[in-house]
# Entry
Amino acid sequence: MKFQSEPNTSAGEFFELLENSGYRWHAKIEGAAKQNGFTVPQGTTVLAFHFKDGVLVAGDRRATAGNSIMYELCDKVIPIDSHTLMAIAGVPATAFEMARVLSHNFEYYRRSQLQSMSTEGKIRALSKLLKENVGMAVQGLGVVSPIFAIYDPAIKKSRIHFYDMLGADFQIRTHTATGSGSQIIRGILEHEDLWGEKPLAERTREQAMTLAIRLLQTAALFDSATGQARPEDDIFPTLATLTEEGYRFLGDDETAKIFKTSTERG
Amino acid sequence: MFEEPYRWMEAVSTRHNYVQEKLKMGQPVMAVPYNEGLLIFGFAPQPGKIFEVYDRIALGGVGHPADVERLRMNLLDMAHLEGFNRSAQDVTSARLLQFGIAPALKQNFEEIQRAPYIIRMLLVELDNEGKPNFFRMNYDGHWETFKNGTAIAGEEKVMDWLQKEIQKQPFATYSLDQALQQACKLWDESRKLESDDEAKKDIPETLQEAFDQWYLEGAVLTEKSARKAIYRPLSKDEIERLKSSTV
# Structure
């Protein structure tokens, strides 16, 4: 903890403050061989879609390394600030680091500048981090493919963005999914939106939760890197909503209840 | 000029007088516990007395706005770097003061070639067990800890009076509305102690005038918040209720 005679004056830029304190984002490892024709090592399924009250973000809990299941309680939906959620697929170390940088960045900006960072500014902040990370991603060591959900007070609506690994962001009007199991459920999401009982954006919170649980269970049936819920061990998917009031994670009891009704067969 | 110890002591003493004179106009900021957390509040002609520092820490300042701002930014830098490099749980008011601000302020004050900070500061936190902690720091780096609330003000006699009065009331048992009302009454009474000064002729004479002409700044740190950052500015409704119950 060090008192600086001249505090940071870079208009709320936390990443710059970090760098001034000696922190370096490892863009790439010098001397390491670049992998040719690498495949993105994503072992996960996370998804987000608009529903009646806002946005739902959900993810499975499994972390893998190659063919090994390393962990079944991984939280892949991470709160960044009171009105922002990030769902991560890819290398957890890099993704968690990005989430921590972003979280401190937004809070530092809000507290130092006495106003929240704009929605566009927050979306760009993740783009910048992904761009910083291109070297590691190309080496196959730090690929991150995030979904970013944010409530935009200017339009009074939640937004969903996904990014490519170079940092380009794309706003999603209906639904998105990422991770190794995402291809399995993207088609279902589209089908549900177009020809389901009603469009995703008109579904209630409970209906949205039910769909998310079913989608993650389906992804887990076909993708070994996506974890199935294990009610007997109290392991359930992570479910969170984002509305005008901010994010809200579903508690274990509520998740267990919805999980039970969602997975009953008709 | 300062080769003799006496000269140096004289210079430091002069600096005390200088800073105290400059601080005189500063309006009180009070911090008290209440039954769901802690409250920090004060009236001022210009906003800029109460700030959020970190997830569970808030700041109140009296003095030159530029000095308040510099120390505020320093606290923010230290808190966020510590929170990022270690954990939010490692960011505590005591550490920020003891290992960050206080030694630097003392050194700055006693290096008599440098301009002193014109500031008194309150640092309050709701610790990880939900217990409120109150810290008060002087412009020379001297700091004190209080269990049941504290206050800062431009004039020492006002500050001391508020400190004593705060201890007499069971603020920790009050609801937020009650704590606000009682703190507001103390603030109003404390103004009778202020010295007559030509520069103070524009200060509101009644609470009604204070509400109308000045800014009431206030915030709470409360466990009732579902967020990681538990700082919340007082709402318009809470301020309106306070106004209607005290004016």
Notes: Residues 158 and 194 of chain B are 7 Å apart (CA to CA). The two ends of chain B are 55 Å apart (CA to CA).
